[in-house]
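Lecture 7 notes: from sequence to structure.

We start with a single chain of 223 residues. Read the sequence below before looking at the structure.
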Amino acid sequence: MIIPMANILTGEELELIVDSLQEAEFVDGKLTAGWYAQKVKNNTQLKNDAHQTQELRDVVSAALKRSSLFQIAARPKAMRPIIFSRYQEGMYYGTHVDNAIMGKEKLMRSDLSFTLFLSDPTTYTGGELVIESTQGEQAFKLEAGSLILYPSTTLHRVEPVTAGERLAAISWIQSLIRETGDREILFDLDTVCNSLSQQSSTTTEFDLLSKSIANLLRKWAEV
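Now the structure, written as tokens:
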């Protein structure tokens, strides 16, 4: 599933992050790329040990934890440290697939990737995230504070920025539910369950649906 999510960040959170990044130290993005991605990656990212880094990571992490849509779509078990990337004029990230296994001391499988857009799309030209799927290529350039969640198994790229500056926060997730199809089934069932709960008080149908979700989690979850 490829799922856009609006308003992950509040206006205050977005302003805090963008203002902090304007004064931050950025380094070559190739430092965190796999051997193949290094050949096609041309951007910069917030220095890992910059004094702003952990505070900004905490802001984004808190926003993801309170987003019910993100939680039921990703069902996160583990997440890599968030990277804040910057694309200025002429920068891009060519077609690549994300590393399947990430980390050094503690390994993690990448099931899902996300891009949290931080720049107003009217302030830069180009910079679309293009994801390849069986339906063809899909290009995304979302409003600031919005996020796109997509399978790490896909080929994807960031088109060259031809004017302005593109800021984004990215990371990768190991899901409790390994199989994409299983995650989609649970996502659909949870969506229906949430809708039923808003329409009326608890019903027999709601109880049975909740039971099925719980039992599928027991069947599929890797904990």
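Helices lie at 11-22, 53-66, 68-74, 180-199, 204-220. Keep this in mind for problem set 3.
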